[in-house]
């Protein structure tokens, strides 16, 4: 009986060694966007590093703040895991807070209003003054006060010797609405270009 138990333990151990999930680079294409079940799409080259922090745009009585962080091994509904840059934001106009999602930022979530891992290099997709080897992020953006969704480009820069980012936000559309239903109202975050200083 003891031999059977030892043999069973051996096969369980062997199976756990063989069944380990693969670790793939985040640039590895995902077939049909589903990814390899159980795989970890890891930032093996650390290209998502260096964006963490709080950045602020100020113009007149408008204060627009974005907080970014790199989240490690976030789960995609248990299908696969991946490293992401995620973020949340706050907008204050004339002393009135219009939106504030900063408290939704956690180290484990992938359901943030700013999230993604797409890295663009050089002047690809609308950066005519980018250096050939310069990297920037293109992430998803959700306008928290409306059903509008879009994208956000984040480019590292320097302003008067301080770390900064140039942020471009644009909307790709509202969610689908029922025929005859009123279109959703515009959100409070205006699409455009913002230079934000790291705090």
- Summarize model confidence as the mean pLDDT: 86
Query: Count of DSSP helices?
Result: 1
Strand order, largest beta sheet: 3-4-5-7-8-9-10-11
State the low-pLDDT regions, or none. 6-18
Strand content: over 45%
In angstroms, what separates the terminal alpha carbons?
66 Å
Radius of gyration over all CA atoms, rounded: 21 Å
Number of domains: 1
Q: Structural class of the helix and strand makeup?
A: mainly beta
Query: What's the shape?
Result: globular
Describe the protein in words.
With 199 residues, the chain is mainly β. The chain has one domain. The chain contains one helix and eleven strands, in the order H-E-E-E-E-E-E-E-E-E-E-E. The longest helix is centred in the N-terminal third of the chain and has 17 residues, at 2-18. The chain starts with a helix and ends with a strand. Residues 6-18 have low confidence and may be disordered.
């Amino acid at each position: 009986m003891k031999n059977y138990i030892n043999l069973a333990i051996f096969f369980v151990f062997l199976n756990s060694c063989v069944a380990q999930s693969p670790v793939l680079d985040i640039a590895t294409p995902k077939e049909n966007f589903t990814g390899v079940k159980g795989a970890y799409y890891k930032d093996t080259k650390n290209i998502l590093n260096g964006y963490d922090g709080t950045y602020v745009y100020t113009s007149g009585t408008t204060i627009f703040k974005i907080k970014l962080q790199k989240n490690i091994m976030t789960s995609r509904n248990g299908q696969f895991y991946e490293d992401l840059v995620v973020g949340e934001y706050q907008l204050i106009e004339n002393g009135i807070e219009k939106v504030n999602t900063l408290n939704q930022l956690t180290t484990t979530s992938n359901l943030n209003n700013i999230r993604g891992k797409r890295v663009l290099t050089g002047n690809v997709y609308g950066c005519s003054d980018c250096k050939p080897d310069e990297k920037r992020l293109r992430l998803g953006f959700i306008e928290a006060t409306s059903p509008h969704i879009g994208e956000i480009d984040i480019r590292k820069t320097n302003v008067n010797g301080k770390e900064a980012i140039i942020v471009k936000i644009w909307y790709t559309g509202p969610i689908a609405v029922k025929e005859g239903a009123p279109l959703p109202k515009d959100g409070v975050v205006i699409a455009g270009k913002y230079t934000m200083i790291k705090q």
